[in-house]
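Hey, can you fold this?
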Amino acid sequence: CALLDAYFMAKYDTTEYALVNEIKTKAQVAEENCGNHILVVTQVNELYIKSLEFKNFATHIPRNEDSVKLSNKLLILTKDAKDQFNKSAVSNFYCKSKLEQIVKSADTIQQAIGKKPR
């Protein structure tokens, strides 16, 4: 059984992958709510917290420098969004653009993590 488990085991860190998937999904949902400033601010704050969780998770895994670099970049994106959205109301265009940027970044990271051998 152990041999079969090892054979079918994912070749990447499934927790990292799941965290990035959550970030991407939350950003997609937030993008749908750009017309509701109060709701989208709450969702952007949650994106920042989830990105911080991803960074903290990735940090002390051996031979994981690439994921740490990617998590830092995603954290900066979500922090910038959080800071801007909490400072003042943002335009619908800015809201959608910023969240699309986060979705694309998370998607790229998800692809990189999925291809990484463990």
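Oh, and this one too while you're at it.
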Amino acid sequence: ALKAITAFFIGIDDQDVVLSFISVIPKLLSIVVETLKENETHGRTALESMEDLTKNHPEIWKGNTAQLVNVISQVMTTKDFDEGTRAAASEIVAALSE
């Protein structure tokens, strides 16, 4: 479902329309966290979807950047996650910084 939601956002060209959905972003981050706790492989897929969203619509993080950075930094520093998962998290930050 997360992948479908991010694909929906990516398909929207109008920034104002995308920003009208900004209120769902904290919930999406919560879903990523829960998914990572339950299944790392699915969690990595969720992180990759968030990276795609960030590359296409970085403005979606307005007002939620601190929460995003907090989640990403926790993933990147958790040694229980494999390198691919931590790298997927770091790619979101790289996309946001671009």
